[in-house]
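Model it.
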Amino acid sequence: MEDNLLPFGPGALTFIGVYLLSLIVIGWLGHRARESNSMKDFYLGGRGVGFLVLFMTLYATQYSGNTLFGFSGKAYRIGFAWLTCVHFMIAVIVGYLLFAPSLHRLSRKGGYITPTDFLKDRYRSRGLNMLAPIVMIAALSNYLLAQLTAMGRALQGLTTVPPDSAFIFGVLLLAGIMVVYETLGGFRAVAWTDVVQGIMLLAGIATLTVMVFHEFGTLGDATRDLLAGGAADRAKVMPPDALACRNWFSYVAIFGLGASLYPQAIQRIYAASSGRALRNSMALMAFMPLVTAFFAVLIGVIGAAQIPGLLGSSSDRILTVICREIQESSLLGYWLVALLFSAILAALMSTADSCLLTISSMATRDIYQSFLHPEASEARLTLVGKILSWVVLGLMAALAIHLNSLETKPTLVRLLDMKFDMLVQLVPAFMIGIHWKYLRGRAVFLGMATGLVVTFALYGNASVQATGIHHGLYGLAANLAVAIGMSWLTQRRSERPTA
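Modeled.
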């Protein structure tokens, strides 16, 4: 449908362009503020991140523009049942509190840089040191791919350029700006841009909510319209059935556990200036689903009532379609949409740059230094990390463009689900191992390997999909059984008296 396009004029495009170029300036300021040419400075900002910057970088990383596109698209497809996104985003904070305070204290003592540094210090397992970074890099690469895909889809609505060309241009332009400011300023540039991006995202959400209610009516109006529609529409506002309830529980569990183990979030735990700053940031983060994830549900449900007909991955564009209606309503609406799209692009980039920075840190320290060049200097490692950022981003951008060229395109939520299926396998290593001293490295390694095998073996299994439970949770159950069972047996054998 042609009205999916949201063409901006020279003024709005100039506004967005100036904002994007300002990110490079922030990167340069981050470069000027560096204290040393070391991995600690480049990847953690010298471990001096205070409450406000820590909160904003956690928020901007946790809630990307992909959240707005993907969550609103999911709510468009299934309706109020997607209110589970509010619950599982709150559950993420519960997941953090299971291990973050203790991990922060240990990171100060051990000088951790990457998430795997804790695993090396805790378990001394070569197998785990190889498998864990591969899992985390693979999950982050999937997340980075989702952000790049959303970037391209966002730019498809900004101009009258053919959609496929606009997608390619959007991916390459935004990825290029992102990698430049990250290479210049490292973690400082990423965190400082996150502050700007987080503020813009909150401002954009607040203004658009008012405009949506003004143009399309309230959630109550949308509910009445859906109830008056066909069976598919009525299902979007009816109480969930047993399958939907199981799926609800599954999302709360897998997101609550998996998202709290984001490798980039673990690095932010390391970077916190103090335990107090970390705790206060987490406390404030607990309220953010109410102003971000709930907004995405609102957009999706109102869109389902007022703008029917978007199928499959096309439903991820519902936010764009609604914004076009608002843009055409008035001059104020036009500029508010320009502000919102700047905020969405900012949020996408804030999440993508965090993923990219963490991927390069793990590839450099956990693979290059650990297995290829143990004696490399800090300056050389930092340079290798910067080069790897360009290589990884180039590969992911090419993959995003290729996937967009396919006739059947993956939805954004599907890309997110795959990432959490992998990340949740880290639960024993971090959440249990940080508290239970008898958990053994070999057991954790075999449990993680078992969990991954079970997870991917179940992909495509119709019987498993019919349960409404994520594949990763089945894998986690097997993972826990192996890791805890082997560790318990090892402990019992060690306690037996010798003859």
